[in-house]
Every structure is written in C-alpha cells, then in structure tokens.
Amino acid sequence: MKNDLLIVVDMQNDFVDGALGTPEAQAIVPRVVEKVSQFEGRVIFTQDTHDDQYLETQEGRLLPVEHCILGTSGWDIIDQLDPGNNVTIEKNTFGAKALAQMLVEDQKKEPITSITLIGLCTDICVISNALLIKAFLPEVPIHVDATCCAGVTPESHENALKAMEVCQIDVIR
Predict the structure, then answer these.
(1) Would the pTM of this model clear 0.90, i.e. be above it?
(2) Which distant-in-sequence residues (6+ apart) come within 8 Å of 161 by Cβ?
(3) Which of 29, 68, 74, 152 is the most buried (most CB within 10 A)?
(4) CATH number of the domain at 4-172, please?
(5) Model pLDDT for residues 73-132, shown as the tens digit of each residue
(6) Where do the structural domains in the chain lie, given as residue ranges?
(7) Which residues contact residue 145 at a Cβ distance below 8 angstroms, ignoring those fewer than 6 apart?
C-alpha cells in the first residue's frame, strides 16, 4: 500500500501577498491549489508562527520584518487552501522539528513511500524542511515540485533547487 505524503510549506498570507509577499509567490498559488486538490495521499501543512517578540529573536534581528504573527491574518493559510482536517504543524523557525519527529514515528507504523514538498520560500523553509526530513529519513524518496515553489528571488529559488539536487532530493521541474 502506498503511503505518499505532500507537505505544503508556509502557504500563508504574509508570504504570498503580505509583509514578505512576492509576485513569484502569488504566481504559484493556482498550481499549489491544484496539486493539493489532486493529491491522493496525506497532506500536511506547516505554518510559520511567531509572537509579538519576533524582532527580539535572532531571526527577527536578521530579517527585521514582522510576519506570521500568531493570530493575525498574515499568519493564516491563504484562503484558496483549506487545511481542513489535515495536520498543520506550527514552527517558530525555518525547519519544523516537530514535523521530522512526527514523520519518523509515522515511518515506524507504516513505511512512507515518498514525500513531496511544495510552498514557500524555496530558499529558506522549503530547503530547510527538505534537508531536515532527508536527515531523519534518508531512505525515503524526497521530491520538491519546483513549479509549486517560489523563493525570495528567482535566483535564490534556483540556487536552492540546485543545492537540494546535490543532496539527493528529486527536484521536479
């Protein structure tokens, strides 16, 4: 029996058309919505989550733009996607430690046949989660659908895709 997973990384208002939104992020929304609606396996969402002390964190000092503050509209998953009954994992940093730990436990119960990641931002949270999962589950095929990802810039998006390919992550172009 197949146990394929789709991980939708940080498809939140602040990353699409809010505080850190980009035209590239806006452009992938229809493809992301289609991919999620047609996916036949389990879908898991991650949600970048900060509090009102964000600017006092290391990340906040290096990226001094308040974003994805818990309970704000910028923190919400975009309206076009409804996480519904799917698992949503809040994360306070680029990689979701709880996601990796959950996947390791899931793998013990039923082998995961593949994991596909999509979402934002390719060069920060997508790559962080792809590499984190690869470290915890090195024998599970990991895919990143580049057509359903966007980076901070087109150049950094492409750099991240190349870095993931070198790390034996299958990039779907």
Answers:
(1) yes
(2) 122, 144, 146, 149, 171, 173
(3) 68
(4) 3.40.50.850
(5) 999 999 999 999 999 999 999 999 999 999 999 999 999 999 999 999 999 999 999 999
(6) 4-172
(7) 35, 116, 117, 118, 172
